[in-house]
C-alpha cells in the first residue's frame, strides 16, 4: 500500500520527520529526529528530547543545499557545519528538499527585509493607557482585511480553473469540426468563454495587486515590531539564565555548608561560579572524539570570606576557627609578601645581551601520500621502516623538556619567599605552567639518539643554565638538570609509557621532578600527569591533560594536591580546568589554587573552613571562605604567525637556533632536524633513516661485545641471536602499530574524498 503524500509545506510551516545523519566512520549513519521551523533546521536523538536537548542547529539563510543521489543530500553553511543526510526513499527526500528550499527562500527574504527596515518606517507610539489595545485592534483589523483579500484570491483562482477548463474543451471541440453550420456557434461559444476567462484573470490580477500593496504597507511596521519582541525575548532569556546560575550556586553552597554567615545570602555570588555552558553542542562531532570521562563532584567549595576578615587588625584575627591553623601575623605577612612578588619588576641586570630569533621558516604545506609510504614498505623488515618527518616538529625531545623552564620567573619569585606555604603556591603554578605549550602542539618531537645532549645557557639573560642528555635508548630515558643564580635548582629523569586505546593514545610520564631552594633548603618533588592524544585514527588531533599531582615539601611536610580535570562533554566547568589546595603537615588548608593549564592560575587565601554535608555521591565536601583571588601565572601570548611555525612559543623558536661553542652531541647539530626546520623534508627523511640505521648497528655491536665479554663463545652466539631477535621483535611491534595507524588514516582519507 503506497504511502499517502502529505501536503507540500509552506515557508511558515513546521516540518518534522526522521532522517539518517552521518556521524563518523565508526557509527556511520544514525537515525535522528529533524525539525524545520523559522528557517532553522534542528535535530534530536528522539522526539522526547525536543523539550530539553537540541543536538545541533543550522541556519538555512546562509546554508547551501546539494543533492548527492536518489536518497542523500548535504546541507552546509560554508564549512563550519555540514550535515550529510539520507532519507528513507526518493519521495521523502524530495519532500525535505522542497521544504528546505522554501524555508531557505523565506529566511533569506526575511533577513534582507529586516536589514532594510531600519529607521525608515515610522513607529506609532501608543497613547497613554490604551497603547496595547489600540495596537491590538489595528493588527486585528489588518488581519481581517488581508484574510478577505486572500479569500478573494482563492475565489478568483477557482473561477480561473473553471473557465480555463471550459475554454480548453471549447477549443478541442472547435478543432474537431471540419466544416458545417455549427462552426459559427462554436466560434461564438469560444469567444464568450475567452471573455469570461479574461475578466476572471483581470479580477485575479487586481486582487493580487491589492494584497501586495496591503502587505508592503504593513511589512516594515510589523518587522520592526517583531524585532522589538525578539530583543525583549533575548533580554528575558539572559535574565533567566543569570537567575538560574545564581540559584544553582546558592543551592550548592546550601548543600555543602551546615551554617553559612549572613553575607553569603547575597545573590551576586552566582556570578562567581565560573561555569560556562555549551551552546550549539552536537552529539556527534566529525572532527572530535571526546574523552568519555564523567564529571567528578567537587571536593570543596570556595565562597568569599566575610568582609570582617578584610578589616580585622592583628589583635582580632586570632579569633578565627582553629581549623584554619594560622594567626594574623602570618596572614598579613603572606599577603604583603605575595603582593610584592607579583608586582615586583624584573631586575635590570637580567636584560638580554643577545638578540634571539623570533621566527623560523614557515611549515611547508607538503601533501602526505600515505599510500606511497605503504608502497615503499612492501618487502622490507618492519624494524627498518622509517617514519617520515611529516609527523614531527623540528625540535628534539630534549629541547621539549627544556621548555618547562619557559616560566622560570615563578621559581625566581619562589626563591624570595619567606613562608614555605607561599613558596608552595609558586612551585605549584610552575608545575601547571609546563603544560601550557602543549595545547596546540600535536607534532611529535624527534627521538634523541643515545648520548645526545642539549644545553640551554641563559645565565646572562635569565640567570639559569640547563642541560639534558639521552641516557638510555631502549627503553628511551632522559635526564635534565637546571641551576639558577637566583638560588634554585631543578632536576628530572623522564621515561615514557604509552597505551593505545583505539580512539586515543595515553602517554604516562614515569619518573619524578625535584626542585631545591638553597636559602631555605626546601626540597619539593612531584610527577607529571597523563597526556592523552585524541583522534589518532580519524579526525583532527587534539591533546588533553588529566590526572592528579601531589607537590610535596620534604623538609616541612607541606603539600599541594592539584587535580587536572579531563575534558568531558557532560561537564559544565571550563575546559582544561585545574584546582588545588595547599595544606601544611597537619593537613590544614591555607591556600586554594584554580585556573586552567593553558591560560592562567589564581590563588586565594583561606580565612575559614568548615565541613559540609555529604555531596551527590556521599563524599563530604569542605567549604572554604577565601579572600579575593589574585593571578599568580598567565600564559605568554604566542608570536605572530605561530600557526605557520608549529605553534612554537617565543622560547621554543630559539631552542634550535645555531650557537657557537655547543657540544658536538648537541641537538642543534642534528642534520635531519636542521633540514626539516629549513623546509627540506625529503632530505630530512633520508638523513633521519641513515641516523636511525646507524644507531641500530651501534646498539647491536654494543650488545654483541657485552655478550662476548660475559660468556663463552658458544653461549655468546646463542645469546647474541636471541638478543637480536628480541630487538627486531620489539621494533617490529612498534612499526606494525604505526603502519596500522597509517593504513587506517589512508583508508579514511579515501572514504572522505568519495
From TrEMBL:
Write down any Gene Ontology CC term. Answer: cytosol
Give the UniProt record's GO annotations in the biological process aspect: lipid transport
How is this protein positioned relative to the membrane?
A: Peripheral membrane protein
What's the protein called, per UniProt? Answer: Oxysterol-binding protein
Q: Which InterPro entries match?
A: Oxysterol-bd, Oxysterol-bd_CS, PH_domain
Q: Where is the composition biased (Polar residues)?
A: 314-328
Q: Which organism is it from?
A: Solea senegalensis
Report the family membership: Belongs to the OSBP family.
For the region Disordered, what residue ranges are annotated? 111-139, 259-289, 301-328, 658-732
Q: Which UniProt keywords apply?
A: Coiled coil, Lipid transport, Lipid-binding, Membrane, Phosphoprotein, Transport
Tell me where in this chain the PH domain is found: 12-105
Molecular function terms from GO: sterol binding
The record, for Pfam families, names: Oxysterol_BP, PH
Upper lineage is: Eukaryota, Metazoa, Chordata, Craniata, Vertebrata
Compartments it resides in: Membrane
Biased segments, Basic and acidic residues type: 666-707
Chain segments annotated as coiled-coil in the UniProt record = 219-253
Q: Which CDD domains match?
A: PH_OSBP_ORP4 (cd13284)
Superkingdom in the source lineage: Eukaryota
Which parts of the chain span the membrane according to its record?
Answer: none
Amino acid at each position: 500500500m503506497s504511502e499517502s503524500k502529505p501536503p507540500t509545506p509552506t515557508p511558515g510551516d513546521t516540518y518534522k520527520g526522521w532522517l539518517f545523519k552521518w556521524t563518523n566512520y565508526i557509527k556511520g549513519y544514525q537515525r535522528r529526529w529533524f525539525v524545520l521551523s523559522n528557517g532553522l533546521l534542528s535535530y534530536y536523538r528522539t522526539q522526547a528530547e525536543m523539550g530539553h536537548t537540541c543536538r545541533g542547529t543550522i541556519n538555512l539563510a546562509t546554508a547551501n543545499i546539494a543533492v548527492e543521489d536518489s536518497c542523500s543530500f548535504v546541507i552546509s553553511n560554508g564549512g563550519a557545519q555540514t550535515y550529510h543526510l539520507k532519507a528513507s526513499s526518493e519521495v521523502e527526500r524530495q519532500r525535505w528538499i522542497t521544504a528546505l528550499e522554501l524555508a531557505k527562500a523565506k529566511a533569506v527574504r526575511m533577513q534582507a527585509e529586516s536589514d532594510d527596515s531600519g529607521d525608515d518606517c515610522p513607529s506609532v507610539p501608543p497613547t497613554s493607557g490604551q497603547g496595547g489595545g489600540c495596537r491590538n485592534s489595528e493588527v486585528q483589523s489588518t488581519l481581517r482585511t488581508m484574510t478577505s483579500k486572500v479569500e478573494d484570491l482563492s475565489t478568483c483562482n477557482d473561477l480561473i480553473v473553471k473557465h480555463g477548463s471550459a475554454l480548453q474543451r471549447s477549443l478541442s471541440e472547435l478543432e474537431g469540426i471540419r466544416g458545417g453550420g455549427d462552426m459559427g456557434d462554436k466560434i461564438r461559444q469560444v469567444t464568450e468563454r475567452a471573455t469570461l476567462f479574461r475578466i476572471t484573470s483581470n479580477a485575479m490580477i487586481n486582487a493580487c495587486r491589492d494584497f501586495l500593496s496591503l502587505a508592503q504597507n504593513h511589512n516594515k511596521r510589523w518587522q520592526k515590531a517583531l524585532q522589538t519582541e525578539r530583543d525583549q525575548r533575548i533580554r528575558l532569556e539572559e535574565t533567566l539564565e543569570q537567575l538560574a546560575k545564581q540559584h544553582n550556586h546558592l543551592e550548592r553552597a546550601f548543600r555543602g555548608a551546615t551554617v553559612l554567615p549572613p553575607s553569603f545570602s547575597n545573590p551576586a555570588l552566582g556570578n562567581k561560579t565560573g561555569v560556562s555552558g555549551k551552546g550549539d553542542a552536537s552529539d556527534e562531532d566529525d572532527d572530535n572524539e571526546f574523552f568519555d570521562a564523567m564529571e567528578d563532584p567537587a571536593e570543596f567549595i570556595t565562597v568569599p570570606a566575610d568582609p570582617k576578615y578584610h578589616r580585622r587588625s592583628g589583635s582580632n584575627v586570632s579569633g578565627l576557627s582553629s581549623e584554619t591553623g594560622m594567626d594574623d601575623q602570618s596572614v598579613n605577612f603572606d599577603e604583603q609578601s605575595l603582593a610584592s612578588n607579583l608586582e615586583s619588576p624584573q631586575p635590570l641586570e637580567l636584560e638580554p645581551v643577545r638578540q634571539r630569533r623570533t621566527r623560523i621558516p614557515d611549515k611547508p604545506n607538503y601533501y602526505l601520500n600515505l599510500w606511497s609510504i605503504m608502497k615503499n614498505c612492501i618487502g622490507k623488515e618492519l624494524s627498518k621502516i622509517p617514519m617520515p618527518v611529516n609527523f614531527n616538529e623540528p625540535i628534539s625531545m630534549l629541547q621539549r623538556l627544556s621548555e618547562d623552564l619557559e616560566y622560570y620567573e615563578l621559581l625566581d619569585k619562589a626563591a624570595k619567599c619567606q613562608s614555605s606555604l607561599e613558596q608552595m603556591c609558586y612551585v605549584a603554578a610552575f608545575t601547571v605552567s609546563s603544560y601550557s605549550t602543549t595545547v596546540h602542539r600535536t607534532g611529535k618531537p624527534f627521538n634523541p639518539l643515545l648520548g645526545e645532549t642539549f644545553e640551554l645557557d641563559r645565565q646572562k639573560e635569565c640567570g639559569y643554565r640547563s642541560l639534558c642528555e639521552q641516557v638510555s635508548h631502549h627503553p628511551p630515558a632522559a635526564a635534565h638538570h637546571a641551576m639558577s643564580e637566583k638560588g634554585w635548582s631543578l632536576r628530572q629523569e623522564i621515561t615514557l609509557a604509552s597505551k593505545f586505546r583505539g580512539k586515543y593514545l595515553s602517554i604516562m610520564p614515569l619518573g619524578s621532578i625535584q626542585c631545591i631552594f638553597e636559602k631555605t633548603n626546601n626540597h619539593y618533588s612531584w610527577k607529571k600527569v597523563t597526556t592523552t592524544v585524541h583522534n589518532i585514527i580519524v579526525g583532527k588531533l587534539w591533546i588533553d591533560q588529566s590526572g592528579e599531582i601531589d607537590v610535596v615539601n620534604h623538609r616541612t611536610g607541606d603539600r599541594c594536591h592539584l587535580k587536572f580535570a579531563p575534558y568531558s562533554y557532560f561537564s559544565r566547568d571550563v575546559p582544561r580546568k585545574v584546582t588545588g589546595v595547599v595544606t601544611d603537615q597537619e593537613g590544614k588548608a591555607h591556600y586554594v589554587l584554580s585556573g586552567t593549564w593553558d591560560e592562567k592560575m589564581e590563588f586565594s587565601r583561606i580565612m575559614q573552613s568548615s565541613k559540609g554535608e555529604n555531596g551527590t555521591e556521599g563524599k563530604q565536601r569542605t567549604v572554604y571562605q577565601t579572600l579575593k583571588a589574585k593571578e599568580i601565572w598567565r600564559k605568554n601570548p604566542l608570536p605572530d604567525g605561530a600557526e605557520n611555525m608549529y605553534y612554537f612559543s617565543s622560547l621554543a623558536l630559539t631552542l634550535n637556533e645555531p650557537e657557537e661553542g655547543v657540544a658536538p652531541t648537541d641537538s642543534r647539530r642534528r642534520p635531519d632536524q636542521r633540514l626539516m626546520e629549513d623546509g627540506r623534508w625529503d632530505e630530512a627523511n633520508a638523513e633521519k633513516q641513515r641516523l636511525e640505521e646507524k644507531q641500530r648497528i651501534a646498539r647491536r655491536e654494543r650488545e654483541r661485545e657485552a655478550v662476548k665479554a660475559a660468556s663463552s663463545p658458544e653461549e655468546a652466539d646463542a645469546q647474541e641471536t636471541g638478543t637480536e631477535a628480541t630487538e627486531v621483535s620489539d621494533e617490529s611491534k612498534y612499526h606494525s602499530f604505526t603502519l596500522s595507524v597509517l593504513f587506517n588514516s589512508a583508508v579514511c582519507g579515501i572514504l572522505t574524498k568519495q
